[in-house]
User: What shape does this take?
Amino acid sequence: MGTTRRTILTGLLILAAWAAPAPAVVLHPASPPLPASLRPNDGMIGRWGLNASCVAIGADLVLTTIHQDDGDPFSPRTVEIDGVSYTATVQSDHVGGGTTPWTEIRLARLTLDGQPADLAYWADLFTAADGSVDGRLVAIGGYGKGRGQALATATGQVYGYRWASSGNNTLRWGQNVTALTTEDVVGCLFDGPDVDPTVVSEATVADYDSGGGWFTQVNGRWRLLGLTLGTQHATIKQSWFATTDSAAPNPDWLSALRIDVYAPWIEEMAKSLAPQPGDADRDGDVDFDDLVALASHYGAAAGAGWSKGNFDGDGDVDLADLGLMASSYGLGSPVALDFQADLEAAWSVPEPSALALLAAGGACLRRRRASFRAVRR
Ligand SMILES: [Ca+2]
Ligand SMILES: [Ca+2]
Ligand SMILES: [Ca+2]
Ligand SMILES: [Ca+2]
Assistant: This one.
């Protein structure tokens, strides 16, 4: 890594630390919105308190940054996802580590009326096994400030934008390509309009985007690659893609915490908090009651929570979810369970559409059953 790059990234971390909590993703073009096919479901991003964003990584778990919370980890906060307000309680913080000045990642649990949240959408983690962090097309989402008035030179050359003065009320999505990776931070450059033809809607971040998500696709699934930390001109609340005295390109950087570096910690923390895949009713076992819950929602295409049998966070209830259940069927049960027999019983009064889908997936189910038996012994 060159000295310049190291300097930029050190500056990036420090600025992120000092940046006031602020509003949302700045884009050009500002509209139309990024098509749904190029980004995760809106339900993966939350509005954290009054000044930040967060990302769902489980049916009742979110990740965010720490700096926006003014050093008070203990008072519960409100997190709004898809219009529903949850109570967020911080479970664990990861501060410091490595040779960087500090790192900050916060894991919180969401409840609704005292019960665990039942989210339909959450992200897989981007891990070291997924390859290089650099050069990835990412969808960036957050509840930060939007694009405000254009900034122009005396000769009328636009070099950037002020940030709009709104609060963190609007979720926006844009794209960028990652670069500038350091030990635990990944960056992007806010290039000018039409500079990078692979990017549909070039994005940078602004106030209140802290804790928002950078997602990339791996094998057709969205994975969380980064959590938004900061950007270059945060102190003056502007985003530049050129110099102030000419139209020469001089893109601002934006930064995110690398999830692959912290994935082992996140997974360890989540393991003790998240229910076993298949445990739809969260009573500690994976048994017939759970199977019935899944069966009665089988075929749901979108918006299905954990309690309905969506165990992989993609909003539907399908063969992939049934496979997850099959792999752990019988766990925690005091008596031996027969998955195949229970499967037939659970579907004895099914919805017709669910039956048809199940028939289509029968071959795969039989394979799952074999692996289940190996586990159960
Ligand atoms: Ca760029
Ligand atoms: Ca259960
Ligand atoms: Ca049970
Ligand atoms: Ca699913």
